[in-house]
Design brief:
Number of domains: 2
Mean pLDDT: 95
CATH topology of the largest domain: Rossmann fold
Helix content: 25-40%
Oligomer: single chain
Radius of gyration: 22 Å
Low-confidence stretches: none
Strand content: 15-25%
Distance between the termini: 44 Å
Largest sheet: 9 strands, mixed
CATH architecture of the largest domain: 3-Layer(aba) Sandwich
CATH class of the largest domain: Alpha Beta
Number of helices: 12
Bound molecules: 5'-O-[hydroxy(phenylacetyl)phosphoryl]adenosine
Number of strands: 21
Shape: globular
């Protein structure tokens, strides 16, 4: 069902006219109220009135994550802090988070877009959503929570962790939808199997999975083990949180980005030049309605492709292809670009392996090397070392064939690889930190 039929099916011409109006207002507000934007625009000698068409967005400066950090905590806010009713933070690996503020209207818009997203994933008020994204500064928990409440779905605010209890409540509450990272969903599936509980026989029917890259092969794995439709949801704290985009259940082919609220571009990672539709590059987002934390041309570092072709679901909003990785997580192994999701795809196609893995990168002299750590399924492990060596040689060959790199493949006993409660750590990089 389409939650907001008028806006979600706007003819593209009207949608783009609306985007232009909102873009101009946003740029004016940013210029007038945020010192950082004013200085960055002055430096490029661009003024708000220069924005006459959507293509003029390229005149505006980019905003990078480092610059948000430099303005910690509230330097990027475009409203006085007494109008801010909510703070969230980006999941920074270390140091200070990027702090994002929301006005009352921002929170309400987030709820609306979240409701659109859940509805696109096939949820209706008769569903029950078990929300296993973490609650806290991370936007996942609160984001899905307000999405469900706005759509009128019963939400079970479990947060991440307590995996046995997650399984128990899925059963006891007859939960129909589960939201969490795909890696945590796998963890829940495993826990249920260990408890001898068949989730496929439960009412659970949809998974709302995102916050980390995952492959199409992972989708099949989750769909078959949990007996659900697994839907990809995208978002980032700097822009809003979950619900910037989502797949529709009708097509499951690309994520609709809510273009009346976000202007999305795809640019060349190295040059920053806009790319024609259909070409792969870095997604750049400008917010069109945010009050407290408007964002001009945020470099997401997420690699994707924009597709403006009509979708069979009837929504007119453009789609971005499943995000396979971030430009800063791309490994360059002896000149070959590798995303962890490519390795994931190969591993998942190997039936005797269990889908838990972690990649290590080493540097010896000037050479980078890769070790793929993966778990044997219990039947494979039972067959002994010699048999496992054969499987690891096969996987090594497959990685060479499909990705073009040599990697050591180490098969571990079941349970050896750390289980994720939220975003999985897929890569352990033992090289000295690259200058970036
Ligand atoms: O991960 C927001 C979110 C919560 C999205 C729950 C979906 C569900 P951050 O912690 O700021 O926010 O991380 C944002 O996560 O730039 C991507 O690199 C990655 N990411 C998010 N969704 C996806 C996805 C949340 N569906 C960063 N596929 C983004 C691939 C994703 N990567």
């Amino acid at each position: 069902m389409i939650f907001d039929i008028d806006n979600e099916t706007l003819p593209r011409e009207d949608l783009e006219a609306l985007q232009l109006r909102r873009l101009r207002t946003t740029v004016e507000r940013c210029y007038e109220t945020v010192k950082f934007y004013r200085e960055a625009m002055d430096e490029l000698e661009v003024k708000p009135h220069h924005i006459q068409s959507l293509a003029d967005v390229k005149l505006l400066p980019f905003t990078k994550k480092e610059q948000l950090r430099d303005n910690y905590p509230f330097g990027m806010f475009a409203v006085p802090t007494d109008q801010v009713v909510r703070l969230h933070g980006s999941s920074g690996t270390s140091g200070k988070p990027v702090v994002v503020g929301y006005t009352k209207r921002d929170v309400a818009n987030w709820g609306e877009l979240g409701a659109r997203s859940l509805s696109a994933a096939g949820l209706t008020p008769s569903d029950r959503l078990q929300n296993a994204y973490g609650y806290g500064l991370f936007t996942g928990g609160m984001g899905l929570h307000i999405a469900a409440e706005t759509l009128g779905v019963m939400v079970i605010p479990m947060s991440g962790g307590q995996t046995q209890k997650q399984v128990m409540l899925l059963e006891d509450f007859a939960t129909t939808a589960l939201s969490c990272t795909p890696s945590y969903a796998l963890n829940i599936a495993e826990e249920a199997e260990n408890l001898g509980i068949d989730v496929r026989k439960m009412p659970l029917r949809v998974g709302i999975f995102g916050a980390e890259p995952w492959s199409e092969e992972m989708r099949y794995e989750l769909e078959s083990r949990l007996g659900i439709d697994a839907i990809d949801i995208y978002g980032l704290s700097e822009i809003m949180g979950p619900g910037v985009g989502i797949e529709c259940i009708e097509a499951k082919k690309g994520l609709h980005v809510w273009e009346d609220h976000f202007l999305v571009e795809c640019v060349d990672v190295d040059t920053g030049e806009p790319l024609p539709p259909g070409e792969e590059g870095e997604i750049v987002i400008t917010t069109l309605t945010k009050e407290a934390f408007p964002m001009l041309r945020f470099r997401t570092r997420d690699i994707s492709v924009i597709d403006k072709a009509p979708c069979k679901c009837g929504r007119t909003h453009a789609r971005i292809r499943r995000i396979t990785g971030r430009s800063d997580y791309m490994l360059i192994i002896r000149g070959v670009n590798v995303f962890p999701t490519q390795v994931e795809a190969v591993l998942m196609r190997t039936e005797t392996l269990s889908p838990f893995y972690q990649i290590e990168v080493f540097r010896e002299g000037f050479m980078d090397s890769l070790r793929v750590n993966v778990e044997a399924s219990p039947p494979l492990y039972a067959k002994g070392q010699e048999y496992m060596d054969r499987v690891s040689a096969k996987v090594r060959n497959d990685i060479k064939d499909f990705i073009g790199i040599n990697a050591e493949v180490k098969i571990h006993p079941t349970g050896a690889i750390e289980r994720s409660m939220g975003k999985a750590v897929r890569v352990l990089d033992h090289r000295k930190k690259k200058a970036n």
